[in-house]
Write a structure and sequence with these properties.
heterodimer, A: about 220 residues, Nucleotidyltransferase, domain 5, 2 domains, five-stranded mixed beta sheet, globular, B: about 260 residues, alpha/beta, five-stranded parallel beta sheet, 9 helices, 9 strands
Chain lengths: ~220, ~260
């Protein structure tokens, strides 16, 4: 059984029938159109599978598989949106999905790194931050800062920190959170959270799909469009 | 035409087709029923016109239900509009009535529904598809007759708190055993200004607290969701987005609610 997490910028796959197989990643823009999987999640997923699990459920199932705690907050920061699940006493206590006002945060962070030829591995977490609620709108803060004489790297770092702080608040400002998504590999972003962060990487939703697939008699709901 | 200050049953003889916004007092509906008037509930999408046609009159960032009411009012050939603007509706409706009164050549009559006679809420507690029940509740606004053959109540497995959404498709995600709370329950009870009834919820079942985006009730919905031990707060504007749909679907499934 092939699982697929079809994200905005990257797609992740796992073949459950291949012993010891590791997840694979491919840029969404390079994804062959004829790609088919057995069980999918991600906002592009319905196009590529007969069965689909929505992203919040995949995130929650991934959290249940990876986090052995009764109380936690798991935040997923993707290219296009942010979403979180909060568990208390081992049960779902709160959740959120910000696809509108949290728009394009991850995508914008990657775009800025390439455009300005930066390396987030070498940028320090700034003291100051921008008040950023949206990747697109937040870019004007960068341009204004650069015009006022602030170095580009510092302005972008403030922007990245602003996005992290916004995501942290969206998740309910927890003292500790688990982070999911490709931004786990961005040390500036991870270090910008004003709380303890445990980065779980970009395959949490795939692990959630795996849990769904392994549930007896429940390979995921059929797609209803 | 200017706003007409008060309701008068006698003036209804002049009309054949009226529109209503919100839930006008029972005496208005009784008089309209007695005169055999056609009643259009302007809060529902009734005409195939772009919501943008309301933009010259209301801001784009505004309650989608009232924007819908304006579009309906502009395109339906009505003889009068009865807009409830009291504690059973909202200030947005009050301002919308003022704007419509100037924009339209028909009388716009403001009402204040403070009815307290409870008609009961059988549909809110019945075991039937949520969409069908909400359609029946909204249709019930046009009739002053008591409910006949009410369905029996069921044991709830989920709750929906809020107003009838502009886009009913979100309701299709809920099980038939969902109980309805909030202003929709007040609607069925024909007591839209009963704020005590509006704030009631069942803490025993997972509940979605819904409000239209940009509506004052978003504050109440979020406040009550925080008080409820197992709740999801949700606001939706014109159409149910895929993320809103996914939130409800995930909330119900992860809460163990069976479809």
């Amino acid at each position: 059984m092939i699982l697929g997490d079809f994200g905005t910028s990257y797609c992740k796959f796992l073949d459950l029938d291949a012993p010891g197989a590791k997840p694979t990643i491919i840029a969404t823009k390079e994804l062959p159109r004829e790609t088919r999987v057995d069980l999918a999640t991600g906002h592009n997923g319905k196009r590529f599978a007969d069965r689909y699990v929505n992203e919040l459920i995949a995130l929650a199932r991934g959290g249940e598989a990876l986090i052995q705690e009764e109380e936690y907050v798991l935040l997923d920061c993707g290219s296009r949106d942010i979403k979180f699940i909060r568990y208390a006493n081992g049960k779902l206590a709160d959740m959120g999905w910000n696809a509108e006002c949290g728009a394009s945060m991850g995508f914008t962070i990657e775009l800025l790194e390439r455009y300005y030829d930066l390396d987030y591995g070498h940028l320090r977490v700034p003291e100051q931050t921008f008040s950023v609620t949206c990747g697109v709108l937040g870019m004007s803060d960068i341009f204004d800062a650069v015009i006022s004489g602030i170095p580009v790297a510092e302005a972008v770092a403030r922007f990245v920190k602003g996005i992290a702080v916004n995501a942290y608040r969206f998740a309910g400002s927890p003292a500790k959170l688990y982070l999911s998504g490709g931004l786990c590999d961005n040390p500036l972003f991870v270090g910008s959270f004003p709380c303890q962060v445990t980065a779980l990487g970009r395959f949490v939703l795939l692990r959630g799909l795996e849990a769904e697939a392994r549930q007896p008699g429940k390979p995921g709901p059929p797609i209803i469009s | 035409m200017a706003l007409e200050p008060a309701f008068s049953a006698a003036t209804m003889r002049r009309f054949r087709k009226i529109g209503i916004i919100g839930v006008p007092p029972l005496e208005v509906i009784q008089a309209a029923n007695a005169h055999g008037l056609v009643i259009h509930d302007l809060d529902e999408p009734l005409v195939r016109e772009d919501l943008e046609t309301a933009s010259p009159y209301l801001p784009r960032v505004y309650c989608a239900i009232l924007r819908t009411a304006v579009v309906n009012a502009l395109h339906l050939e009505l003889d009068a509009i009865y807009a409830d603007t009291g504690p059973g509706k909202c200030d947005c409706a009050l301002h919308t009535a003022t704007i419509l009164a100037e924009a339209l050549p028909i009388p716009v009559i403001r009402t204040r529904n403070t009815d307290t006679t409870a008609f009961g809420t059988p549909l809110c507690q019945a075991r039937l598809p949520l969409i069908d029940r909400m359609l029946a509740i909204t249709a019930g606004v046009k009739s002053a007759a008591p409910y006949q053959n009410p369905p029996p109540p069921c044991t709830p497995t989920a709750g929906f708190w809020g107003v009838p959404p502009r886009d009913f498709s979100i309701l299709g995600l809920f099980p038939d055993t969902t109980h309805i709370h909030g202003w929709a329950r007040c609607m069925e009870n024909k007591t839209p200004a009963d704020h005590a009834l509006e704030t009631e919820f069942n803490p025993e079942v997972p509940t979605v607290f819904f409000a239209q985006s940009f509506c004052a009730k978003t504050a109440l919905a979020r406040y009550l969701a925080k008080k409820h031990p197992h709740a999801l707060y949700l606001d939706v504007d014109v159409h149910t987005t895929s993320s809103a749909r996914a939130k409800v679907q995930a909330f119900l499934e992860l809460s163990g609610v069976r479809p």
